[in-house]
UniProtKB/TrEMBL annotation:
Catalytic reactions on record: 2'-deoxyribonucleotide-(2'-deoxyribose 5'-phosphate)-2'-deoxyribonucleotide-DNA = a 3'-end 2'-deoxyribonucleotide-(2,3-dehydro-2,3-deoxyribose 5'-phosphate)-DNA + a 5'-end 5'-phospho-2'-deoxyribonucleoside-DNA + H(+)
Cofactors, names only: [4Fe-4S] cluster
Pfam families attached to this UniProt entry: EndIII_4Fe-2S, HHH, HhH-GPD
Underlying gene: nth
Cofactor, how bound (note): Binds 1 [4Fe-4S] cluster.
Database matches in HAMAP family: Nth
Gene Ontology MF, one: 4 iron, 4 sulfur cluster binding
Primary role: DNA repair enzyme that has both DNA N-glycosylase activity and AP-lyase activity. The DNA N-glycosylase activity releases various damaged pyrimidines from DNA by cleaving the N-glycosidic bond, leaving an AP (apurinic/apyrimidinic) site. The AP-lyase activity cleaves the phosphodiester bond 3' to the AP site by a beta-elimination, leaving a 3'-terminal unsaturated sugar and a product with a terminal 5'-phosphate.
Binding site for [4Fe-4S] cluster: 186, 193, 196, 202
SUPFAM superfamilies xref list: DNA-glycosylase
Full protein name: Endonuclease III
Keyword Membrane: no
Enzyme class, first EC level, given as a word: lyase
Segments crossing the lipid bilayer: none
Amino acid sequence: MNKKNKEVLEILYRTHPDAECELHHETPLQLLIATILSAQATDKKVNEVTDKMFQKYKTLEDFLQMTMEELESYIKVIGLYRSKGSNLMKLFPILKEKHGGEVPRTMEELILLPGVGRKTANVVLSNAYGVPAIAVDTHVFRVANRIGIVNEETVEKTEESLMKKLDKNLWIDAHHLLIFHGRRICSARSPQCGACPLNHLCTYYKKNKKTLIPKEK
């Protein structure tokens, strides 16, 4: 890992010491469900839904007894709820029949599940099982490329480059740190570059500092 990226992570650790997975869950299954629901939705909204749903439905056997109507009654406030609900209803019997009632522990198995792509799989692997992985959502993609940790045009390439450029034992933390920075400081439309502790290292800031905030030096 080069000197710049090492310094970036050191600063992010100090800036966001509370960075962690914000989706409420107690089991790998609950995390998988919450992550599927989180596509194009905020963690806050997903938590509002799952906090209620997980009170009644806790285990796979519970979810296998659930009807589509019951599921939609919980998740209808979340975007794309019909397709997400359809995927979940397909998911539950697959977990029982093909995986012995357990959430798979490999990328290869996870991405074959309904509604699961690499990002969701990486979230489950890293947060449920402690497997080194970097889930690249919109925040991670934006922040990593703005700062200049990587210089890629797609989510897939960004994940590949981050895995090459960051030490493997830091992948999980880096995912959370970049998300928190994206939510709190490096927002999509109005990044707070003047208040960002990374601006002296940031490629985006160096290119745009003259046109950002007039009072900035």
